[in-house]
Design a protein that fits this description.
Length: 434
């Protein structure tokens, strides 16, 4: 059988890794796919020194690849929502299958892309868009297909995890570690996507749709970053037996779906609390299987290429299958997607860590406790530290039981209105993940 011709759009870190893996493992790959896979053309503005492209034709116009009649599979590794969107839509219109690592594109435009692909009878595969080399899409969409998925919680941004790990292990400041993450090339082109949780929200949006069979709804994800965390919070969390991780959490509740990315205290003895540096990990809880955990490199040239090439192999296998009998893009058949609502942040339910900086006066603690009890917020534990000499303030750290976020918002407003309390106070959500 003749090899399948593929075209690569973008020869950056992931594009270069994909080319190299396809060349190096060509024999193993063709044994798996049943056919050879040949890179027929590459679109790149710059050559990648990590990649010997030999006599593979190279163009600087991505649409040369998209409109190349020989090419059956377009591998989109450009990133962003603009040119990448046009590339993917044109490839679909041309009847080509698409493999992409582009989380932003899928999270924001995925519904439209999948609809167009289904009409054309082509596949859009996107394993590499979430957690780099971890085959989490495959696990959720196929391996766990028997389950009702109850929740998914993951460390799905390596840069953020690197920052939190360095703050905890070495007491380094946020800004200092971020500068290093940028220098090491972990961060997105715009690092606010990493530290403000936007990158993680893109990935979580995709996971939630596949877990619960709902359309992609990135605009409804609640996103909170890690830039306001201090080393003091990291230390206090440790004192209570917790670690702070930047988690993406998607949970099915009786009222709808929680879709949220925020710093989270989790018990230090959970496996996921011990995932450090740039590594990613995702817990999935299903009604039949219970809790499962997937761990690995969430970024980087070859880990991401591992997922891209696995998708290419899947697409090659699917070339001869009936389009109606392929694994659906979002795990559930398009006509069976549910309209389960994504809940607003005020409706989520969780426990809280509060750090209140208060003036050292009699009765402050009583006022704080009254505000919480009036809103039926149950205190689990409380820690009052010694007065900070320079500011003359006393840190009060409180852990609460689970409560609806709206009640906590009211309580925080009342606490911040107290004369003795410095505003804003620090609130971090707490999850047991059990
Ligand atoms: N900036 C991302 C991260 C790259 O740090 O995880 C992988 O999506």
């Amino acid at each position: 059988m003749k090899p399948v011709k593929v075209g690569i759009c973008g020869l950056g870190t992931v594009g270069g890794g994909t080319f190299n893996v396809l060349q190096r493992n060509a024999v193993e790959i063709s044994r798996r796919a049943g056919r050879g896979i040949e890179v027929a053309q590459i679109a790149a503005r710059h050559l990648n020194p990590a990649c010997d492209t030999g006599d593979t034709p190279i163009t600087d116009d991505v649409f040369d690849v998209v409109n190349n009649p020989e090419i059956e599979v377009v591998i989109e590794l450009i990133g962003g929502y603009t040119v990448a969107f046009d590339v993917v839509m044109q490839a679909i219109a041309n009847g080509k299958h698409v493999v992409t690592a582009n989380k932003a594109l899928i999270a924001v435009h995925g519904n439209e892309i999948f609809e167009a692909a289904s009409k054309q009878g082509v596949v859009v595969a996107f394993e590499a868009s979430v957690a780099g080399g971890i085959p989490i899409i495959k696990a959720l969409r196929e391996g766990l297909a028997a389950n009702q998925i109850d929740w998914v919680a993951g460390i799905i941004n390596g840069t953020g995890n690197f920052i939190l790990t360095e703050m905890r292990d070495k007491g380094r400041t946020f800004d200092d570690v971020l500068a290093e993450a940028q220098m090491l090339g972990y961060a997105e082109a715009d690092p606010t996507f990493d530290v403000e949780g936007i990158d993680a929200a893109h990935k979580l949006t995709i996971l939630a749709s596949i877990a619960f069979g709902i359309p992609l709804q990135f605009d409804k994800a609640y996103t909170e970053g890690i830039s306001k965390l201090t080393t003091a919070d990291v230390r206090y969390a440790e004192a209570f037996g917790y670690r702070i991780k930047h988690l993406g959490i998607a949970r099915r509740t009786a009222d709808g779906v929680e879709l949220r990315v925020h710093p989270t205290l989790i018990p230090a003895d959970r496996l996921i609390a011990n995932v450090n540096g740039v590594m990613n990990a995702i817990m999935v809880n299903g009604d039949a299987v219970g809790s499962t955990l997937y761990y690995g490199a969430g970024a980087g040239a070859e880990p991401t290429a591992s997922s891209v090439v696995a998708d290419v192999i899947d697409v090659v296998r699917a070339l001869t299958t009936d389009p109606n009998n392929r694994v659906p893009h979002l795990a559930f058949r398009a006509e069976s997607l549910s309209d389960l609502a994504v809940l607003p942040a005020s409706a989520i339910e969780t426990a809280y860590y509060l750090r209140i900086q208060a003036k050292d006066r009699p009765g402050v603690l009583a006022k704080v406790a009254t505000i919480l009890s009036e809103r039926e917020i149950n205190i689990e534990s409380i820690l009052q530290k010694e007065v900070e000499e320079q500011a003359g303030l006393v840190p009060i750290i409180i852990m609460t039981h689970r409560v609806r976020e709206q009640k906590m918002n009211d309580a925080i407003e009342a606490l911040e209105a107290l004369d003795e309390v410095v505003s804003p106070l620090m609130r971090i959500r707490v999850e047991q993940l059990n």
